[in-house]
Design a protein that fits this description.
- 2 copies of one chain form a homodimer.
- In chain A, about 50% of the residues are buried.
- Chain A contains 12 helices and 8 strands.
- In chain A, strands 3-4-2-5-1-6-7-8 form an 8-stranded mixed sheet, with helices on both faces.
- Chain A has about 260 residues and is an alpha/beta fold.
- In chain A, α9 links the parallel β7 and β8.
- In chain A, α1 crosses α12.
- The first copy, chain A, is globular.
- Bound molecules: adenosine-5'-triphosphate (2 copies) and magnesium ion (MG) (2 copies).
Amino acid sequence: MGKIICIANQKGGVGKTTTAVNLAASLSIADLKILLVDSDPQGNATSGMGISINGSPTIYSSLVGDEPLSNIIMDTELDNLFICPSNMDLSGAEIELVGMEKREFRLKNSISFVKNNYDFIIIDCPPSLGLLTLNSLVAADSIIIPLQSEYYALEGLGHLLKTVQLVKNSLNRNLSIEGILLTMFDSRTALSSDIYDEAKKHFCNILLKTVIPRNVRLSEAPSYGKPIIFYDNTSKGAHAYLDLAKEIIFNAKKS
Amino acid sequence: MGKIICIANQKGGVGKTTTAVNLAASLSIADLKILLVDSDPQGNATSGMGISINGSPTIYSSLVGDEPLSNIIMDTELDNLFICPSNMDLSGAEIELVGMEKREFRLKNSISFVKNNYDFIIIDCPPSLGLLTLNSLVAADSIIIPLQSEYYALEGLGHLLKTVQLVKNSLNRNLSIEGILLTMFDSRTALSSDIYDEAKKHFCNILLKTVIPRNVRLSEAPSYGKPIIFYDNTSKGAHAYLDLAKEIIFNAKKS
Ligand SMILES: Nc1ncnc2c1ncn2[C@@H]1O[C@H](COP(=O)(O)OP(=O)(O)OP(=O)(O)O)[C@@H](O)[C@H]1O
Ligand SMILES: Nc1ncnc2c1ncn2[C@@H]1O[C@H](COP(=O)(O)OP(=O)(O)OP(=O)(O)O)[C@@H](O)[C@H]1O
Ligand SMILES: [Mg+2]
Ligand SMILES: [Mg+2]
């Protein structure tokens, strides 16, 4: 029970939040109970699900304070999908965590009390490799690395994989790579095919089968606070994230 | 002499590096002497200019150590463009800076020794509001805020403007807003026009006139280590960044 997958990449704008929100939503309609944890101070996963905090506690209270996660978790419009929301309060957390004991294990400890209530727990990370992302890597069973089909995104991949290996060797022996997910793939451009070929050449054994196409419906959905399957379930984006959910479920059954 | 402009936005992937590299290059061909400072551990501005570090010192040595910036600054292929490179060494800097005296002024102090050698100094920032971006805001005379024509990007703008105001009130009275730069504008989608209308409605007096269109040539150029004016000077992207350079020069003369 309770497989924890973090969606991480220090490169900005590669589709971490879009993947976290839409994978969580697609898994939840397969009759699985899902918790989406937003550990990014921007709170995009929270607003992408149409959630307004209105003063209730966020993940900040559990990471830096001692609030149990169960007091922070909120319902969403989807029956099987729950969210641990975030907001800008979290932006001070990295500096506050620096001096704390077992600072890398705060999220892992918080999640451990609720882990068995869910089939999957999906964690959205900020665009950095600071203490917030580190907490997610330590808490996770596996990582999905969204790789935007662009040059700068490919550049940072080597460093991220080294960091994952370091975390695996020291803080979380259980951490595995769920896979690299190609995002914003535009079959009309040579650049996308070039990046795909490079990724296949260097990372073939960890490249997920599902490829997410560039699809404007995916970037429209957040302004309505809805995952793609509820905004436009006929879109290429919706089909791609349903495929991804099937692939993740298949992988979880295998291991 | 030496107007310092930082390119900042905590939202990832909005076009900070693309703007820093191509604005710096476009200014340099107007016979102005330009320094491009890469303060992002990803080092995308450094590789976007085709620079390989090969062991020489990076900005890390000046921010955390005491190396003078003049020992770190390198030539680029462009006569009037110089770069202060970065690499992953910088990713530990934020935690190392936490305990230092005057930690927010480290970059301002380093730049002060070289400032008068350049007409403009352009600083590329990482996707966060941590100590690296804070150092750039304190060192800068003004900030350009790239705003991707997408919903999530618009969401974080209010918080960034509040942070800029806080820095202006406390650490850098000199800081002004050069402007909000709309990036990756795709005239074929309703989303881009919606975002443009929203930005005009709420931020009309600080919206820059130049709008950067979505243009695949801009995302191809970094894989050749060249700014757009040297990769494809006939492209829409090249024209847009030349327009931006003209607008920035015009603004500098006005004030
Ligand atoms: N497949 C896609 N097709 C089109 N647009 C997309 C796609 N995936 C994401 N987007 C859009 O691209 C932008 C960046 O995506 P997103 O915010 O999910 O990335 P991120 O990695 O979470 O960013 P950050 O680094 O700031 O956390 C968003 O505006 C999103 O709506
Ligand atoms: N106008 C544009 N048209 C098409 N692609 C663009 C444009 N501007 C930037 N890009 C591409 O979009 C991606 C994100 O841009 P860029 O890396 O400059 O953003 P950033 O804000 O610096 O990201 P980060 O937050 O990771 O530092 C890059 O792959 C870049 O090549
Ligand atoms: Mg995100
Ligand atoms: Mg960048």
